[in-house]
Batch of 2 targets.
Target 1
Amino acid sequence: MIFSLSFKLLIRRGKIFCKFSLNQRYRVLCRASVDILWKQLVNLADVSWHPLIDRTNAPNGLIAKPGLIYKAVTRLTPIPVRVFVERVSPGELLSVRFLALPGVENRVTYQFESTLCGTYISYSVTMRGWLSPLLWWWIRPYVDRVASSLARAAERAIA
């Protein structure tokens, strides 16, 4: 786990601005192949493995593509948040941005790396905005489990 936190106070035109940035990265080793992990991740209708997202409005079989916007409902609140798929490199990388609250920018990136030992899942979260510390405090217990939950779901699929 790699954690980076940045807090800056800026003064512009006589006003004080606060800039907050948080970067958190998790890395987990999984026995499943990249193909199985990728199928589990890009199936937007089935998020049963995700500890934070309860359901989405994506139809069954819809695969993540750049520019796609869909809604997801978290396990914490019944209020849907918009999810924007930024980048997709099949079998390697998926980057999405959560558009939930004004004052918070939340970007999530999944990366897969195949090795002789298995497949490494890198899950990174980047949050910016003045409400980020409060939101991070609230969702951190769930975010800590995302990569390991994806690995367990993929390993169950091969068993």
Target 2
Amino acid sequence: MFRAGVDGRWLYRRLAAVPGPGESPDEVARRISGTSADDPATVVHSTSWRHRPEGQVVLTYAVCPDPAPHLPAEELPTLDIARGKAPATPTPEQIDVVNVAGHAVRHLAFLMATDAVVCRALSRHPSIASAMEGLARELAPALQLAGNAAR
């Protein structure tokens, strides 16, 4: 769950759950965040997946804005993402929670710039929209490349 802090800084809460019988990953994300499927002002979006050595696949969802902003949250010090060593080896040697959270915020910024539904939902929240605008300026070269590739 993400919220914008002072000066465009990001804060997050991390929750984890396993799907119940017949429950989809989207439903799990909504259940543990306390978000309903018909909420027009909250984005629930799968931002990444990774394989664990134990044979599990971990899906990461971003929920924005945080449906429970009164609960304690961690400050996201940077938006650094973990990267593999080469283009054909995308899995990083180590992935920390802050890397996953940073990737999720960047993913949301990309969606806000390219997805009208996400933009409409997040624009309802001035602090989120302002923080996303700052991030979009930072990501502008990558967004331009994505736009050119789509043409």
